Amino acid sequence: MLLYVDRVCISAAKGAVTADLGLSDTQFGWVLSAFALGYALLQTPAGVMADRFGPRRVLTGVVSVWSAFTGLTALAQNLWSLVLARFLFGAGEAGAFPGCARAFYAWLPMAERGLAQGINFSGSRLGAAFALPAVAAMIGALGWRPSFFILAAVGFVWAAAWYAWFRDDPAQHAGLSAAERALILSSRQPQGATSLAPLRLGALLRATNMWLAMGQYFASNFTFFFCLTWLHPHLSSTYHLDAVWAGVYAGAPLVAGACGNWAGGALVDHLYRRRRWRASRRAPAMLGFALAAAGLVASASADSALGAVVALSVAVFGADMTLPPSWSFCIDIGGRHAGAVSGTMNMAGNLGSFATGLAFPYLRAWTGSTVPFFMVGAALNALAIGAWALSTPDRAIEES
Q1: Is residue 215 a part of any domain in this protein?
Q2: Which residue range(s) make up the domain with 80?
Q3: How many domains does the chain have?
Q4: Is residue 314 part of a domain?
């Protein structure tokens, strides 16, 4: 939740920030995409760190770093200082989900992995849904710069609590009962050798599964990132809503995304328990991408804020159904290298986010319409269905 509160607050602050710094929409697009680029480029290195040093230390570090740059965002004085702050903020956030994936590999029975991923990602959607109206109201009351300082302080508190509470392996956690510890250790994925041999870049690049995961996640993030970045200002300017009401409307697709995560995760586990390993990853993702494509096409012809939000809620529900199978798939094929593999997938996905932040304002400027953007997103979702049809979660990436 905190990850996405801090990520989406820049969108809720768009009006105040652009007025203060004198930025155009296309310039603000570079601010949004700078985050996605920094986030994408550090995914694989952050995942490797999570595999090597463990999620306890890595997540403590990344939350502390991104919180520092959330605070430093408030010190920006022009376009390029803001772009730099958001790029470094994105780089700081890069280890979050790979670190979670590595924690899930050590802690979760395989039959519970899908729903756990859904719960995890639903927190991010609920955090963003809460942030859009709440941060807009806080900025209205305090100003955008003090608001960013407050959000930074919350992150430092979380990091300290996480380090004190979490342990990298259930065997090390004194708070577990003997029965729960025995259940986890007997039903999680085999952990392999004690020492972790490095996963070679060539092994990643040779793996068809890796490329399929990257391609479909690019499409998923292209769809979802619009809701984190341009949906709030799009609703505000197109349908003449004030900042808080635009935040309320913009939060609805994010709540739908949380529901999509739960539904996708439950379907993953339901199929896996029936010994349908491949179908447990493929079916939820393919259904989700079909819904995402349909929702984007419908949103292109919406003639009211409510109609646009309903269509985009369907799209985001579908796009977020794909997250539990995507991250479960990475743990399946990555094993003890789950951090590196999931980080590589997330890198490709956030190149999709980078494209979204720029594609929306530039396509609108070039064509005078938002329709081409939504059609491009629908086409990418259709291609992702084909990628999942070729995926093989029961085929691990070679470690040599």
Answers
A1: yes
A2: 2-168+207-389
A3: 1
A4: yes
Q: Is the pTM of this model over 0.85?
A: no
Q: Which of 244-248, 276-280, 310-314 has the lowest mean pLDDT?
A: 244-248
pLDDT given at position 400: 40
Interatomic CA distance for residues 217 and 209, integer angstroms: 12
| 132 pLDDT above the threshold of 80 | no
Q: What residues are paired with 188 via a beta bridge? A: 109
CA angle 164, 168, 172 (to 5 degrees): 80
Residue 376 lies inside a defined structural domain of this protein: yes
Report the interhelical angle of 2-12 vs 25-41 (nearest 10°).
160
What's CA 219's distance to the chain center, in Å?
Answer: 12
Query: How far is 400 from 395, CA to CA, in rounded Å?
Result: 15
Q: What is the CATH number of the domain that holds 239?
A: 1.20.1250.20
Least Cα distance to 32 among 95, 96, 89, 98 occurs for 89
Q: Give tens-digit pLDDT for 21-74.
A: 999 888 988 888 888 888 888 888 888 888 889 999 999 999 999 999 999 999
Flag whether 334 is in a domain: yes
